[in-house]
Specification:
It is built from four helices and 13 strands. With 216 residues, it is of the alpha+beta class. The protein folds into three domains: 39 residues; 63 residues, Trypsin Inhibitor V, Chain A (2-Layer Sandwich), CATH 3.30.10; 67 residues, Trypsin Inhibitor V, Chain A. Strand 8 and strand 9 form a beta hairpin. The protein is elongated, with a radius of gyration of 39 Å.
Length: 216
């Protein structure tokens, strides 16, 4: 093919039509990319996050839906004096400026306190260890009750004034009372050949301190 023939073919309407079509397709593709990125990122659009703590989550969901923000419940708490479904914590700080399309994670107030299984602490734990376990589970403790026995040893557990045992499911807002040994130990004679009486040095009978006494 001669040079003139190559030039003639390149200048034909078919070749120029193909080039023009390719150019237009590329332009449309680029415009589509720009439009999509503008729509996807909502370029130039921002919203200011209001303070929604203390508001009902259903009302806030409608409000934020109009703003393009998705409200997501991620946790619950419990405050007795507040009604259920009230927002206790919001993930996006009030006053912050964000783009639509963001998620705002919230913690809401539950309808009632969570029920937790009572751990095995009665006759199996010291008072310090028992208190640590119960507080870690969210329980509130009252002043302990004392009973004769080893000092600071847990002999029983009461929930709301009633005895409970390991495995019982108790609401965490129920006051818990530990029944704890006061350090006084006294073993009565049961007919054995010998028995030891063991009490604290501050226990007196008839004006004399009883320490160890063998009964034959």
């Amino acid at each position: 093919m001669s040079f003139k023939e190559a030039i003639k073919k390149m200048s034909s309407s078919v070749v120029w039509g193909n080039c023009l079509g390719l150019l237009l397709a590329s332009l449309v593709f680029l415009l589509g990319i720009v439009w999509f990125m503008h729509f996807y990122t909502r370029h130039g659009q921002t919203v200011k996050i209001p303070n929604v703590v203390g508001k009902n989550v259903r009302i806030v969901e409608e409000q934020f839906d109009d703003m393009g923000i998705d409200v997501v419940i991620v946790d619950t708490g419990y405050i007795r004096t507040l009604p259920p479904d009230i927002i206790l914590h919001q993930g996006l700080k009030a006053g912050s400026i964000v783009k639509p399309g963001r998620h705002m994670f919230v913690t809401i107030n539950a309808a009632h306190a969570m029920a937790v299984a009572m751990p095995d602490i009665a006759d199996n734990s010291s008072v310090r260890a028992a208190e640590a376990k119960l507080r870690a589970l969210g329980f509130k403790l009252t002043a302990p009750k004392y009973t004769p026995g080893d000092r600071d040893w847990v002999y029983g557990v009461e929930a709301g004034g009633k005895p409970c045992k390991a495995g019982d499911r108790i609401y965490v807002d129920t006051p818990i009372t530990l029944v704890v040994g006061d350090g006084h130990i006294f073993e009565e004679y049961t007919g054995n050949d010998s028995i030891d009486y063991e009490v604290n040095s501050d226990f007196y009978y008839g004006g004399d301190s009883i320490i160890d006494e063998s009964v034959e």
